[in-house]
Write a structure and sequence with these properties.
By secondary structure, this protein is α+β, with helices and mostly antiparallel strands. The chain is built from 13 helices and nine strands. A five-stranded mixed beta sheet has the order 4-6-7-9-8. The protein has a two-stranded antiparallel sheet with strand order 1-2.
Length: 436
């Protein structure tokens, strides 16, 4: 009989230690990804911490069970109390995790209150049980013994789980399929474990299944993030292609070649220079298709100057160009500023009688780098900018800035006065959100 009890103790302690180890590995993963996983990741981390604490309480109870140490009775009282406490806390935190998977509104507020009410009632009964032995008692020989009211503790746990199940079913349309599966695994398997626990005393199924489903939950969260990352990569590739297509414009090429053709007769040296600029312009655009990394603003500025030199030859005195660049040693996505310059020339100045001026400035601030493209052209109304298909490339600049370096794009325009376009590259990506 003694050997059988020792075997059971070793088995349960081994299960507890394995569950703690697995939970700690998962917790380190959550902590590493918590900024990406967001609020749901934070709740997943709390779930794992509560699980570790609950298993630790269970392991202490197992270790001190039946010992004759003077403080063993006190340790057992506290370990059993916290084992129940953390189990109820797990179901409450699970409810908060479910609600964090979608935007909270008035419809979810009642469910949140209900979860806290059930949790509060469960803990109140647990505290009362500590004094009247309703759930369990610790014998004089330091053994845990269930009391007649033990079933009430199971009912409270099942009630919490049922509340979460109903809530998940109620808001299932707001959850992804994989999220629903992972959540139902967490809700159903511990319910089965609770039922087994009521009839099979000695092996702690709850700890084992809680740990299993929490890891399923974490792996599912990583899978969702990996899928979202692939989707962002695809959107980024499409944005890069869209910008590229807006740059390869037949009309611009025809006009540039026509200017070079005329210069070949009038000014061969200038024609040679124009041809070199045109070649550099095309080379930069084509190379951009292959680039997935950031480039220096110095390279972007070189491309801008190649483009403007060709447009200057075409428009002559109608196009004035001003530079105020105090900083070029920072990185940004390729073709982040040149399309803005092109937009100023094509949509701002070409339709303005007498032409105008394009100003390009770049400066370093305390928190990042600010590039401004300004023109005194015809301007536009905000609605025209958002709805005009010719500005798709400008919209995609904002997408690429945000995804590739945490930057952002801001465009201001006044009809009849001109347009200002700001590109902000933060030294820390969080700062960009304050600018937008």
């Amino acid at each position: 009989m003694a050997s059988s009890m020792e075997y059971s103790l070793i088995l349960n302690l081994s299960i507890d230690m394995a569950c703690i180890l697995v939970s700690m590995v998962a917790l380190m993963g959550v902590l590493a990804w918590v900024r990406v996983l967001g609020k749901s990741g934070a709740y997943a981390g709390i779930l794992l911490i509560l699980n570790i604490l609950q298993i630790t309480a269970n392991a202490l109870g197992l270790f001190f069970k039946g010992t004759t140490l003077g403080y063993a009775h006190t340790v057992l009282l506290f370990s059993n109390f916290f084992e129940f406490f953390f189990e109820y806390a797990l179901t409450l935190c699970m409810a908060m995790y479910i609600l964090s998977c979608f935007d909270s509104d008035k419809k979810t507020k009642g469910w949140r209150i209900a979860a806290f009410v059930v949790f509060g009632l469960s803990e109140l009964l647990l505290i009362i049980s500590q004094f009247n032995g309703m759930y369990y008692t610790i014998s004089s020989t330091n053994y845990y013994e269930r009391s007649e009211g033990y079933f009430i503790s199971l009912i409270m746990g099942i009630l919490s789980l049922m509340l979460n199940i109903v809530m998940t079913i109620r808001f299932r349309d707001r959850l992804e399929t994989s999220q629903r599966r992972a959540i139902f695994a967490y809700l159903i398997l511990p319910s089965v474990a609770a039922a087994l626990q009521a009839f099979l005393y000695g092996i702690y199924f709850m700890m084992l299944l809680d740990t299993l489903v929490l890891n399923i939950l974490f792996l599912n969260m990583l899978n969702i993030q990996a899928r979202k990352y692939k989707e962002r990569e695809r959107e980024l590739a499409n944005a890069r292609m869209d910008v590229m297509l807006t740059q390869i414009q037949p009309h611009f090429m025809y006009n540039a070649l026509a200017v070079i053709d005329r210069l070949c007769i009038k000014d061969p040296e200038m024609a040679r220079q124009a041809l070199a600029n045109f070649s550099n312009y095309l080379r930069f655009n084509i190379n951009t298709l292959k680039k997935r990394e950031l480039i220096s603003f110095e390279d972007e500025l070189r491309h801008i100057k190649a483009y403007l030199s060709l447009e200057k030859m075409r428009y002559g005195d109608m196009l004035n160009i001003e530079y105020s660049v105090s900083c070029v040693k920072f990185l940004l996505p390729p073709l982040s500023v040149q399309p803005l310059v092109e937009n100023s020339v094509k949509h701002g100045l070409s339709d303005k009688e007498g032409g105008g001026t394009v100003k390009i400035s770049a400066e370093e601030t305390d928190t990042g780098f600010l590039v401004c493209v300004e023109d005194d052209g015809i301007g536009f109304k905000p609605g025209e900018f958002k709805g005009n298909g010719t500005h798709i490339g400008i919209k995609n600049i904002g997408i690429r800035l945000g995804e590739m370096c945490g930057g952002c794009l801001k465009v201001e325009s006044v009809p009849g006065e001109g347009t200002k376009s700001y590109v902000y590259i933060p030294k820390q990506s969080e700062v960009a959100r304050e600018f937008s």
